[in-house]
Amino acid sequence: MTEHRPYVLILFYSRHGATRAMAERLAAGVESCPGIEARLRTVPPVSATCEAVDPEIPDAGAVYASLDDLRHCAGLAIGSPTRFGNMAAPLKYFIDGTSELWLGGALVDKPATAFTSTSSLHGGQETTLVSMLLPLLHHGMVYAGLPYSEIELMETTAGGTPYGASHLAGKRSDRPLDEHERHLAFAQGKRVARLALALAASRREAS
């Protein structure tokens, strides 16, 4: 990866792997667009034990996100499993620590999107997506959902919303992404990548 090449940061928390699988599909969508890359990052779990210390590098999978990953991104996709209709605490904990970026306007006019996974079909997918949307708006980002030009939104019998891609993981969290869910996650990544390139060019022209 070249240091100056634009990238979409795909920032996620995944407990059982479903949200990670969605993140990987979004990454494939991002990298289907020439001139931009996907950067997969996760966040550490939150512990109720004050003495608990997580390693700086996870044992497997994506590395932990830094503020600089967020600061320098051309676009952002954030993903979380649903926790009672809200984003999971580890992701919110990370976002709550981004005041430095907010004060400097680091994310203003950059595109953002969100994705989620639930165990049950009506398990709060849309409210979770909205919960992730709110801090993005406070950062001045431009939110990009999924348009109904993606016909899979009308055909899906599991995940998929205009607020962002979603996935029905099942009560054991072991149901794989189906064809519609895979397509919508890919399309979402591709859309945020295209917008990231276009908005970056617009900012350069205005400067």
UniProtKB/TrEMBL annotation:
<dbReference type="InterPro" id="IPR010089">
    <property type="entry name" value="Flavoprotein_WrbA-like"/>
</dbReference>
<dbReference type="Pfam" id="PF03358">
    <property type="entry name" value="FMN_red"/>
</dbReference>
<keyword id="KW-0288">FMN</keyword>
<dbReference type="GO" id="GO:0003955">
    <property type="term" value="F:NAD(P)H dehydrogenase (quinone) activity"/>
</dbReference>
<dbReference type="InterPro" id="IPR008254">
    <property type="entry name" value="Flavodoxin/NO_synth"/>
</dbReference>
<keyword id="KW-0285">Flavoprotein</keyword>
<dbReference type="InterPro" id="IPR001226">
    <property type="entry name" value="Flavodoxin_CS"/>
</dbReference>
<feature type="domain" description="Flavodoxin-like">
    <location>
        <begin position="8"/>
        <end position="192"/>
    </location>
</feature>
<comment type="similarity">
    <text>Belongs to the WrbA family.</text>
</comment>
<dbReference type="InterPro" id="IPR005025">
    <property type="entry name" value="FMN_Rdtase-like_dom"/>
</dbReference>
<keyword id="KW-0560">Oxidoreductase</keyword>
<dbReference type="InterPro" id="IPR029039">
    <property type="entry name" value="Flavoprotein-like_sf"/>
</dbReference>
<protein>
    <submittedName>
        <fullName>NAD(P)H:quinone oxidoreductase</fullName>
        <ecNumber>1.6.5.2</ecNumber>
    </submittedName>
</protein>
